[in-house]
Every structure is written in C-alpha cells, then in structure tokens.
Amino acid sequence: MSNQHIGFIGLGIMGQPMAGHLLDAGYPLTVYNRTPSKTEDLANQGASVADSPSQAACQADVVITIVSDTPDVAQVIEGPGGVLEGISSGAVLIDMSTVSPALEQRLDGLLRQKGASLIDAPVSGGDVGARNATLAIMAGGDQKAFERVRPILEVMGRSITYCGPSGSGQLTKLCNQILVSVNLLAVCEALSLASRNKLDPMTMIEAIQGGAAGSWQLANLGPKIASDDFDPGFMIDLMQKDLRLVAEAAGASNTPLPATSLVHQLFQSSQAWGEGREGTQALAKVLRRLASG
Amino acid sequence: MSNQHIGFIGLGIMGQPMAGHLLDAGYPLTVYNRTPSKTEDLANQGASVADSPSQAACQADVVITIVSDTPDVAQVIEGPGGVLEGISSGAVLIDMSTVSPALEQRLDGLLRQKGASLIDAPVSGGDVGARNATLAIMAGGDQKAFERVRPILEVMGRSITYCGPSGSGQLTKLCNQILVSVNLLAVCEALSLASRNKLDPMTMIEAIQGGAAGSWQLANLGPKIASDDFDPGFMIDLMQKDLRLVAEAAGASNTPLPATSLVHQLFQSSQAWGEGREGTQALAKVLRRLASG
Predict the structure, then answer these.
(1) Which residue from B164, B254, B290 is facing A200, i.e. has the nearest CB?
(2) Interatomic CA distance for residues B52 and B61, integer angstroms
(3) Cβ–Cβ of B192/A257 closer than 8 Å?
(4) A164 with B246: Cβ contact below 8 A
(5) Are B267 and B240 in contact (CB under 8 A)?
C-alpha cells in the first residue's frame, strides 16, 4: 500500500504535521506550498518539492489538498497550474479543507471528467489532532474510492467515517461546527448567569458536567473562561469562516438555524472588538459586554 | 444518624421513590401529600402519615419538600398548616423543588427567625435518577447545616455538591437548564441541516460525538430525534417552567441570555401545537415546521 505516490498540497499548521505522518508511514511524497519555505522541513525528511499543484499531482496516485478557504481550494484545483491540469485518470483527490458542500459537488463533476475521483474529507481536532494523528475525518464521495484511500486517512486520524455521497463530509463538518458553537454559547450564558449572581463558576461546572448538561465545550472551555484564558485553541476568525459556510448551506437548503445564526452574529462583536484571533471561548467577553455598561 | 426523624412533603414522581430510599435506609419518616392516596405505599412500608405539612414537620429533625412549582413551595411552607407553623428550632428544611433563588433567600430569612435552617437542594436526573438514587443534588445555604444533612442527601443522590450561600443550589440548577436546553437546540439545528441535505443523521452523530461537538444531549436525544421518538424523559411543559425561572433570575441580575431566551420562545411553539407533554427533544418538530411550508 505504501508505494502509492502521494501529492500533498497545503503545508499550514494542519498540513505540515499530516504530511509528516505520511512520510513516516513510508509513502513517497511530493509536496507543494504557496510559500515555498514551508516545504523545507519535509524536503529534509525525504519529500520531493513541486513548483505547482499540477506538478505535485502529475505522478500521484492520491492527491491531498488542505488549504484555508473556498477560493484557495478553487485556485489550487481549478486555477492555472492547478491539480486538474496534472491529475491522472484513476487517481483520487482528497480535499481535507473545510469548504462548501456545493463546491465539492461541482469539483467532483470536473474530476470525473478526467477519470479521477474526489473525496471530501474535512477534519476536526485542530492542530493538536494533526500533530498527534488523532483527527476525526468525515468523508464524502464515491465509496469505492473512499475505501481505496482509507489506509491513508488512517495514518492521519483516529476516527474515520464515511458519511455518504459527494459533499457529505463537508455537511457533517458543518453539523459539527453548529454543535461546537451553539454549545459554547450555552456555556457562556450559564457562566454569565453564575458570575453575575456570585456563584463560583468552577463549583457550578463540577456540579453539573456529569449529567444532562454535560458537553466537551463545558468541560474544556468552561474552566478557561472561568480563569480568563482566551488563548486560541481554535480562533474566532476561523469559526466565523465555517459559520459562513453553514449559513450558505442552510440558505441553499432553506433550513432556518436560529441559534447558529445568533452565535454567528455575536462572534461578529468579537471581531468588531479586535478579538478575532482569540480562542472561540472569548465569546464569553461578548456576553460580559452585553451585561455591564 | 438514622434515628434522625424526617418529615417528607411531596410524593410525586420524584418524591415517592426518594422517600422510599430514606425508609429503606432506616430513617423514621412522616409523609404528607396533598392527594392523600399517594401516601398509601409508603404507609404500608412503615411511614407515618401526617394531615398537614405542619404536622409532618413538628416532630422532625429534618424536613424535606419536593413539590412542582414556586406557588406550591410557598403554600406548603408559608401557607396555613405549613411547615413554618410546625418546624422546631434547630431543625433543617431541605427544599428539593426547583424554584427561584429569590424565593429560597426569602424563606431562609423566615426559617432563621424560627431558629431553623433552609438548604435549597434541587436535583437533576429525572424520575430515573430518583428511582435509582443517582440524582445530582446541588445545594445552597448554611454550610454547617448542609454538612449535617449530607448523609441524608447521599441516600437519594450520587453527586452531592455544596454550591454556596442560600439560593446557590437553585442558581446552579438554572445554569444546568440553560446548558440542557441550548445544547438541545444545537442538536436540533444540526439534525435539521443534515436531514434537509439527505445526510444520514445517525452517521453524522457517530462521526462527531467523540469530539468537540459532543454532549449528553447529542448522545442521548440525538438518536431519539433521528427515530421520531418524542416520548418524555423530561417534558417540555416542565422545561418551560424552569426557563421562566431562568428568565426571572436573569432579569433580576440584568443578565442578557440571548440563546436561552430563543429556546424558551421556540418551546412556546411546541406548547402552541399541543406538544407540551412530549419530551424536550420534540423541539426538533419546531425546526421542522420552520423549514417546510
């Protein structure tokens, strides 16, 4: 399996360690990054370096892209020198970026015309999950193509789920972001009521987190809010990008999402106050501003 | 310890099994219930039956009340023939109803005038928790009085937390209800986006529940919503009662709670459509109504 050649495009905070795991697992790897200096570490570990996405794709059995946003994905795949120009018939492109399901469905059509396949496979678990290879990976697309690349996904993540046809991985990721952000707003509101009534926040959290009120957000971000720790695990600016994708998918399917829309608007206050690069738990500051003049 | 005499007032779906556990643990028990027929089972097991809350309180070292709503608590404690008429100096009243923190603080003052103490100790865990003695109990009031009655609370619950001065148990319970209801709305919105995009709901839940999107509500009520099971674990009408207490406490402390307010309004649609006696997960039906004409 490990003599499948992999082209890897996008060596940011996520892509860099993910590509490293593939090298460690013995896959021949050709990497591309818009800022070339980020390829150096992997080149020193044995990766080849390409000058364009097309070049990274042309000898690959499997191409992986993980870039920041919808225009970046369109650029590295459809743009001049993009993956579509180089990818072979029979190859599989795995897009691990978080982008709109609609974009993936359109790209899926373009790849089929080349005889290739697209798997949309966004991740959750953040940079820690990328470094420790404990990501959750949510995949959509042709199921046979998914099964062919599953061993590669297993090198980078711990929980790999096939979710359905093209776009289903992205849709699952958007459901994840709805839950993450609305659960966080619940935590912020509970802590706001507590603190304004002089209830010790940690005692409150410990009293209730084992029951029906429990959540990952309460257990992990509640104590950070209680101690005014707003360092980023996941930045507000990135969450807002994802919530715009949620709004787009919700709009396209006529799905009213009142609480998700509310949290998206409240995060806009974080951005207005210059807090977009803080962790999502800085949403607590918005409620504090609402509550004291 | 178990020769402390307990007066127990309120033998509803919660109080009945809780009083039974105290009898089983060997505490001499005098019970009172507004509808006398509900005392029969406990009388057959050895409990004495009182004709009024006052009579249930007059020989008791510890009095426990667990009734439905704020007016009921006021009635059994302050009303004619109420606990205040009978309670002894040095006794402890434990109010396990869910009512407003402000009411508990006022009653605390009245009991102090009698030389008695009040512990507010609402519970979570529902009728299943009451039957299995696995309730979470959140207590407020004088800490020495709390320590004296802790062994009694341990007979009825599994997680007993002292939260602070009078009203702190109720406030903690209200924080619990904020988290429970807003987390549930997050689950309903994620499932709504999934189903309107033909994403299999159980696959989505399984793909994400182990990560940052995870919650008790997702794991326990998500599958019920996915299979159209709206039987009550906890009824919408009761949640609305609790959310009114949240709104009252939030108003008294000038604490804006936008998402909690939103879920309270959406549950009003459940009530408008005659779904108030269904489980809280029937909130999903409100989103379905919003999404299809």
Answers:
(1) B164
(2) 17
(3) yes
(4) no
(5) yes
The mean pLDDT of B258-263, rounded to a whole number, is 98
Q: Which residues of A touch B204 (CB under 8 A)?
A: 163, 171-172, 175
Start-end ranges of CATH 3.40.50.720 in chain B?
A: 6-165
Catalytic machinery residues of A: 173
Scanning every residue of chain A, which has its alpha carbon at the shortest distance from the alpha carbon of B252?
Answer: A197
Candidates B189, B217, B254, B280, partner chain A, best to mutate (most A CBs within 10 A): B189
Residues recorded for chain B: 293
CA distance B154 to chain A (A): 14
- B68 pLDDT band, cuts 50/70/90, is confident
Helix, strand, coil percentages (3-state) for chain B, rounded to 5, are 55, 15, 30
What is the pLDDT at residue A1?
Answer: 47
Residue with tokens 């097991």: B45
B42: phi then psi, degrees, rounded to nearest 5: -70, -35
Catalytic option among B38, B173, B198, B285: B173
Give A22-44 pLDDT, tens digit per residue: 999 999 999 999 999 999 999 99
Per-residue pLDDT at B1: 47
Tell if the CB–CB gap between B211 and A136 is shorter than 8 Å.
Answer: yes
Instruction: Kindly state the helix (H) or strand (E) to which residue B160 belongs, with its residue range.
Output: strand B157-164
SS3 content of chain A, % helix, strand, coil (to 5): 55, 15, 30
Strand-pair category, A6-9 with A62-65: parallel
Nearest to B208 among A176, A208, A220 (CB): A176
**Residue range(s) occupied by CATH 1.10.1040.10 in chain B:** 171-291
Q: Give how far the C-alpha of residue A232 lies from the chain's centroid of Cα atoms, to the nearest Å.
A: 15
CATH 3.40.1010.10 assigned to domain A171-291? The reply is: no
CATH superfamily of A6-165: NAD(P)-binding Rossmann-like Domain (3.40.50.720)
